[in-house]
Structures are given as structure tokens and as C-alpha cells.
């Protein structure tokens, strides 16, 4: 019931992170990262399960040492979502988690050191069809590049990324994706634009250390929005100093706003004013909280009065328009039911769930496509 996305995505080579395709014609994957102590297996598994419930396609887990690698193996056995192990420098950790079933290695080949060690990691990845994510970050650029460019720049980020890519190229390993993150929106966007022209592999987008829930969401939406609208990006991570579950929700909301994914409810709500015939803000917030578990794509309009109500409600699968003495619910664009302000949220929730079930029954692939 809304415009199809006009975005033409950059054609990238598809890779697989476990069972999840990234790049090519695959939906843009939404990922997050655990912030528990990886050694605390129970807490990490619990957090990953919450991320799975929120719809995470991929989850990254920090693996700083060999004890964490063993814990990673136990975690891996208890969750369904594909796991990326985040490793810095120590190639032995990469080899161990490869044995333990990791779905993707986040490790920069240029930081591993000796060539035989890089080769050992690449061989292990090749043998098990495990992709590698090269992750360049403006905050940890190589010293010589800092010196050459004076400060982090998009060109410096690109040069760093291409060095790592060259390591893999030399070993004829193409099963990788790349990120060039910066906390500055313009720097990250410029770096990704450069990178998109240089390689055919999928790009993992992120504005690193974006900030807290509100500021980081806005920064990520602006930065990733610019890139995604140009067709750049195959998987995204929203970095927030907040509960990682929020990163998944924000990630899906960004993709939904660009019509790149359609998982769950797309709410259309007016900001309300003195013309409202029911409490729009309260109704909207309650519905959003109650319906987070719904996966079926559905447009729901919550509009306070007849000024914009009928127009928006008619375009939605379910639309509520405020009125006196009763509010009016539209279903599939047609006036269907009057509701007064008592039990408004309960009734709406019921109608929305019914509609979602009906749509899922008619087309089960709606959930998968989301
Ligand atoms: S739709 Fe009605 S209630 Fe909502 S903001 Fe507009 S005039 Fe106010």
C-alpha cells in the first residue's frame, strides 16, 4: 500500500554467513553485537536469544582470548542465529573458533602478522566455507596511514581496507565482506562510496560509536540512509550505547523507511493536536509495545481526527481515524467498524493480529521476505 522502493542496489557478490545470504539479491541483513562478557555463556546466550526474537539476522560476539573461544563454542551450540566471531590479531583464536563452528570471522588479515599465519586462517576459512569480514575503523587506522594522511580520511580508510583485501586476493580468497566505519557521517559515507567502486564483495555498513539511543539512531539513520538510498550496503549494524536489541529495532526501522525490508508493522501516526478524538500518543506507544512480536508486514495508521484520518486510513491495511461520537476503523481501505475510546487499544490489537494472521495464511513467504 505504499510506493515500491526506487532504490537500485549495487550488484555485489553474494556470500553466506551460515544460513543467511549477504549481498547479491539477498535482503539487507540486520545485525548486532553482544555486550555481555563472552565467558559468561548463560548471559551471552540469553542476550543472543533476545536478539533472535527481535529479528536479528546475524549476531557478532567478541572473542578476545582462547578462553573466550571455548566459551564461544558453547554459545554457538545453544543458538540458531549465525554468529560472527570478532577477533583482533590472534590468528590462533580464529583457527579455534573455525573448528567450533563459527559462521564468519571478523579479522583483518593485515593485522595477523606473518604470512604463514594469514594463510592458515584463510585455509581454515576456505575449508569450511566461512566468510571473513574485513573491518576498518577510523579510530584504529594503521600508524603509517595516520602519518601519510595526517588524520583519518575517506581515502585513508579505503587504502587500509584495500591492503587487507590484497592479502585475501593474493591467496585467491573472495569469500569476504568489508566495512569502513567512522563515527563521522560524512567520512563514513565518502569511504563507503569509494569502496563500493573498488570491490565486488558485499559491504557491511555502520556509523561506528554513533552515540546513545536517540543521538546514535539519528546519526545512523542519516549516514546509512544516504548510502542505502544510493543502493550501497548489504548488511547493517547500528552501533548504539544501548541494549543491542534496540540496534535491531532501529536497523529494521531504517530499512523499512526506505522500503528495503518490510518486517512487522509500519506505523503511520499523526503527532496529535487538540483536534484529536482519542489519545493518539498513548494508543500508538501501547500498540507499538504490544505488537513487537509480529513479523508479517502490515501498514497500520493511527490518526487522531478526520482532517487526515480517512486519507491515511484508507491507504493502510488497518487504519483508525478519530471521530465523535465514535472512532472509525478501516480495514483494507474500507470503513469496517466503529470503536469508542473504551478498550480502544485492546480492540485494535485484536484486529491487527487477525489481519496479520490472515495475511500470513494467504502468503507464508511474507514473513520470510520481511
Ligand atoms: S490528524 Fe487531526 S489530530 Fe492528528 S495532528 Fe492532524 S489535525 Fe491533529
UniProtKB/TrEMBL annotation:
Family statement: Belongs to the IspG family.
Molecular-function GO term, any one: iron ion binding
Described function: Converts 2C-methyl-D-erythritol 2,4-cyclodiphosphate (ME-2,4cPP) into 1-hydroxy-2-methyl-2-(E)-butenyl 4-diphosphate.
SUPFAM superfamilies documented for this protein: Inosine monophosphate dehydrogenase (IMPDH), Nitrite and sulphite reductase 4Fe-4S domain-like
Cofactor(s) the protein requires to work: [4Fe-4S] cluster
Name of the protein this chain belongs to: 4-hydroxy-3-methylbut-2-en-1-yl diphosphate synthase (flavodoxin)
Gene this protein is translated from: ispG
The record's free-text note on cofactor binding: Binds 1 [4Fe-4S] cluster.
Enzyme class: oxidoreductase
Keyword DNA repair annotated: no
Pathway(s) served: Isoprenoid biosynthesis; isopentenyl diphosphate biosynthesis via DXP pathway; isopentenyl diphosphate from 1-deoxy-D-xylulose 5-phosphate: step 5/6
Record-linked PANTHER family: 4-HYDROXY-3-METHYLBUT-2-EN-1-YL DIPHOSPHATE SYNTHASE, 4-HYDROXY-3-METHYLBUT-2-EN-1-YL DIPHOSPHATE SYNTHASE (FERREDOXIN), CHLOROPLASTIC
Residues bound to [4Fe-4S] cluster: 270, 273, 305, 312
Residues in IspG TIM-barrel domain copies: 13-251
TM segment ranges: none
Any one GO BP annotation for this protein: terpenoid biosynthetic process
Domain of life, source organism: Bacteria
UniProt xrefs under InterPro entries: Dihydropteroate_synth-like_sf, IspG_bac, IspG_bac-typ, IspG_C, IspG_TIM, NO2/SO3_Rdtase_4Fe4S_sf
Keyword terms of this UniProt record: 4Fe-4S, Iron, Iron-sulfur, Isoprene biosynthesis, Metal-binding, Oxidoreductase
EC number(s) from the headed UniProt entry: 1.17.7.3
Domain named IspG C-terminal: residues: 266-353
Record field: catalytic activity: (2E)-4-hydroxy-3-methylbut-2-enyl diphosphate + oxidized [flavodoxin] + H2O + 2 H(+) = 2-C-methyl-D-erythritol 2,4-cyclic diphosphate + reduced [flavodoxin]
Keyword Iron-sulfur: yes
Amino acid at each position: 500500500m505504499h510506493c515500491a522502493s526506487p532504490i537500485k542496489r549495487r550488484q555485489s557478490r553474494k556470500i553466506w554467513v551460515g544460513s543467511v545470504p549477504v549481498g547479491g539479491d539477498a535482503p539487507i541483513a540486520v545485525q548486532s553485537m553482544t555486550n555481555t562478557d563472552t565467558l559468561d555463556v548463560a548471559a551471552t546466550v540469553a542476550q543472543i536469544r533476545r536478539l533472535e526474537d527481535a529479528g536479528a539476522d546475524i549476531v557478532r560476539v567478541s572473542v578476545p582470548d582462547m578462553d573466550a573461544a571455548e566459551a564461544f563454542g558453547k554459545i554457538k551450540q545453544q543458538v540458531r542465529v549465525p554468529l560472527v566471531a570478532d577477533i583482533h590479531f590472534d590468528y590462533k583464536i580464529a583457527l579455534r573458533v573455525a573448528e567450533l563452528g563459527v559462521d564468519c570471522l571478523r579479522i583483518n588479515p593485515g593485522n595477523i602478522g606473518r604470512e604463514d599465519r594469514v594463510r592458515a586462517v584463510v585455509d581454515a576459512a576456505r575449508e569450511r566455507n566461512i566468510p571473513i569480514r574485513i573491518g576498518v575503523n577510523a579510530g584504529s587506522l594503521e600508524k603509517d596511514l595516520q602519518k601519510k594522511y595526517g588524520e583519518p580520511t575517506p581515502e585513508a580508510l579505503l587504502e587500509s581496507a584495500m591492503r587487507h583485501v590484497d592479502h585475501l586476493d593474493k591467496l585467491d580468497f573472495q569469500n569476504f565482506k568489508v566495512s569502513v566505519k567512522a563515527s563521522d557521517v560524512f567520512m563514513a559515507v565518502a569511504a563507503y562510496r569509494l569502496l563500493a567502486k573498488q570491490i565486488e564483495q558485499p559491504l557491511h555498513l555502520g556509523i561506528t560509536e554513533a552515540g546513545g539511543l536517540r543521538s546514535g539512531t539519528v546519526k545512523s539513520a542519516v549516514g546509512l540512509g544516504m548510502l542505502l538510498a544510493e543502493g550501497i550496503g548489504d548488511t547493517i549494524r547500528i552501533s548504539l550505547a544501548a541494549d543491542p536489541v534496540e540496534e535491531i529495532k532501529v536497523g529494521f526501522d531504517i530499512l523499512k523507511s526506505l522500503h528495503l525490508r518490510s518486517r512487522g508493522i509500519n506505523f503511520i501516526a499523526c503527532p496529535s493536536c487538540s483536534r484529536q478524538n482519542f489519545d493518539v500518543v498513548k494508543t500508538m506507544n501501547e500498540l507499538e509495545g504490544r505488537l513487537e512480536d509480529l513479523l508479517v508486514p502490515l501498514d497500520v495508521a493511527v490518526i487522531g481526527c478526520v482532517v487526515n484520518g480517512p486519507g491515511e486510513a484508507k491507504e493502510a491495511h488497518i487504519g483508525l481515524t478519530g471521530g465523535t461520537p465514535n472512532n472509525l476503523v478501516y480495514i483494507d481501505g474500507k470503513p469496517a467498524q466503529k470503536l469508542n475510546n473504551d478498550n480502544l487499544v485492546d480492540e485494535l490489537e485484536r484486529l491487527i493480529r487477525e489481519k496479520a494472521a490472515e495475511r500470513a495464511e494467504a502468503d507464508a513467504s511474507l514473513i520470510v521476505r520481511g
